[in-house]
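Here is a tokenized protein:
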Amino acid sequence: MLQPDGSVRVEMIPEVKTELDVFCQAGLMAAVQDFERGGMQLPCMMEKAGFVWFKAANVGTSSYPFLTIGNTNTLLKCGTPAQLKTFVEPELEGRFFGTMCLSETQAGSSLSDILTRAEPDGADFEGDLLGALPPERQQDVDFCG
């Protein structure tokens, strides 16, 4: 919700917040990550097998952490050090939730039809947390190219 000062505040159903807090406090956001990242170093197969129960219990609520985990994994593979510090650390701690936004209108609803690329857009591209491009090039944006 847009606030009078221009900031954005996300409101969540109280029961959903309680469930997500428990999920995060159990360390499940970083379950497969190395100890250095706050993880348990669980094998991926164990993580996926355990997460089946969360999906079965409530597919909507489980989407919050699972999309965030996907976002985190993408940033861990392709992100800059600044992006890792700004986004990944708080996501693995459960303080931030994130998702992936695909808003390429020319692609319709078939995500498999989207073809994009990424390229550095200047000397300071690693310092630009969001990797923003000029409006005329925004359809070219992709995190990992």
